[in-house]
Amino acid sequence: MATPDQHTVSSEIRKAPAPVLAMAGLLAVAVVASVCVGASGLSFSRALQGLLVWDGSADHALVLDVRLPRAVLAVLVGANLAVAGLLAQTLTRNPLASPQTFGINAGASVAIVLTVAILPGLGTGGTVLPAFAGAAAVGAIMWFLSLSGAVTTVGLALAGITLQLVLTALVQALLIMSASTQDLVFWLAGSVTGADWSKVSVILPFTIAGCAAALLFGRHLGVLELDVTTGQSLGQNTRHVAALASLLVVLLAGSAVAVSGPIGFVGLIVPHIVRRLPGGGDLRRLAGLCLVGGPLLLVCADLLGRVVAFPAELPVGIVTALIGTPTFLLLAARQRHR
């Protein structure tokens, strides 16, 4: 029997089907295009056939074992980063917050590179816990700064970017000093290249758990947008709710960095976009929209990186940076004006 929260989530989804369905349709098209586009010379029709009918050929193996996992990984990473960004903005009541602008991605990256330097040959699954630790450490610093009230909205974002730059410099130092980390250079740009089903299996449980929690507890998490006194007057334990939101940000962002590197700006851009769509409003609806909007942005960015540099590829993190940097500057200027 469905719980009241499950009934509420279903009701919220039914109230705003149009933008969700429209983005879901675009996402399906983008995923098919991602699977069918590549430098191998495989025709579009042959690649599409590989999705529908398996014949055991090398072409179909390429589709199912190389291209499809890449598209699926982009979907999962995009969902993680978008929902994490929404929760970070809600938790800190800061429209400039995201896993990148607050240095959370960089914290996870430092922890992963340091772990690989100490334990060479560690697989993707072994980097998840270090990623969580690094993301949690930086997230705690930024959260305490936010709670202190001593830093403005723009100042908090600048503090996060400064911390990110320091951590990035530390990562580069580790890369120079340790030969075992040299193969992480491409990963640090943020990429879903080289994706396989094992990477999908690493991130999938965290995506399901984190995104489901954001939907189920969205009514409680939305109280974080209010001040502490108002939240308490509504019967919410704001400390517990804030702790849950912080945990979800760490799980979602940390697992994304572990499998794809520090891809930036998805968590910043997507929440702002979905807030302007019909049906946006409370956090549950916004989280539902982010679950589709984040994957759509990342799959399209990955596809664009393959098209503009064909037959070579641009890491998807570079493409999102080119899109996100002017967006961040525009948001910062508007916030400073306010």
Features:
membrane; transmembrane helix; ABC_transptr_permease_BtuC; transmembrane; transmembrane transporter activity
Explain what the structure shows.
The chain is mainly alpha-helical. The chain has one domain: ABC transporter involved in vitamin B12 uptake, BtuC, CATH 1.10.3470.10. The chain has helices at residues 4-15, 17-36, 44-52, 58-92, 104-118, 128-148, 153-177, 185-188, 197-216, 218-221, 228-233, 238-260, 266-275, 283-308, 316-337. Helix 2 (17-36) runs antiparallel to helix 4 (58-92). The longest helix has 35 residues, at 58-92. The model has no long low-confidence stretch (mean pLDDT 84). It comes from Acrocarpospora phusangensis. Belongs to the binding-protein-dependent transport system permease family. FecCD subfamily. This is Fe(3+)-citrate import system permease protein YfmD. Keywords: Cell membrane, Membrane, Transmembrane, Transmembrane helix, Transport.
Question: Layout of SSEs?
Answer:
Blueprint: H1 4-15, H2 17-36, H3 44-52, H4 58-92, H5 104-118, H6 128-148, H7 153-177, H8 185-188, H9 197-216, H10 218-221, H11 228-233, H12 238-260, H13 266-275, H14 283-308, H15 316-337
Helix pairs in contact: 2-4, 2-14, 3-4, 4-9, 4-12, 4-13, 4-14, 5-6, 5-7, 5-12, 6-12, 9-12, 9-14, 13-14, 14-15
